[in-house]
Amino acid sequence: QKEVEQNSGPLSVPEGAIASLNCTYSDRGSQSFFWYRQYSGKSPELIMFIYSNGDKEDGRFTAQLNKASQYVSLLIRDSQPSDSATYLCAVNSWGKLQFGAGTQVVVTP
Amino acid sequence: GAGVSQSPSNKVTEKGKDVELRCDPISGHTALYWYRQRLGQGLEFLIYFQGNSAPDKSGLPSDRFSAERTGESVSTLTIQRTQQEDSAVYLCASSFGTHYEQYFGPGTRLTVT
After folding, report:
1. Do B56 and A94 touch (CB under 8 A)?
2. In the predicted model, what is the mean pLDDT of residues B59-81?
3. Is residue B29 over pLDDT 80?
């Protein structure tokens, strides 16, 4: 079992719709959780981090964390073509980040 | 402020040569991480530093790989006797501490011919 699992996609989302990305993790002791966006040929860019159960909103992005279910999600509202990228879920485990393989999101005009 | 910087941005080397990759973390960040990303693949953890000590070297793929860090500043990743399978983008990240968000540099694209 991989330590951090994400659907690989591609997730096709119409422009203006909500993109919903999911991530599960195996280490119950994990305390911090991150979402990164990676455009093709570029390095990962931090877009959200969350440490407590519940929702955290920042602009068009909402991160949701449920430690009991070992589940993290990212919602992108009003999706734009510029949101087309690979989204990486990362979980801090023993001081280092474990990354999922990423979900490719394609926003179609 | 200034982000994480890495040099060189691109490096082409012949098989068997040694290469040094450099990372300058964000000022004040005590933790520094090295990752590798092969074409079309996910991020592979290599090593991290807390200050100038390396508590976790578990991701280094072989003894040809080594890294060092001077204080809470620059780090170098050295690959000796490069092989074609070492071709990848090498990414560096830094953070305030090991449980905080990491910020990535632009990466060094290494091509071994």
Report:
1. yes
2. 94
3. yes
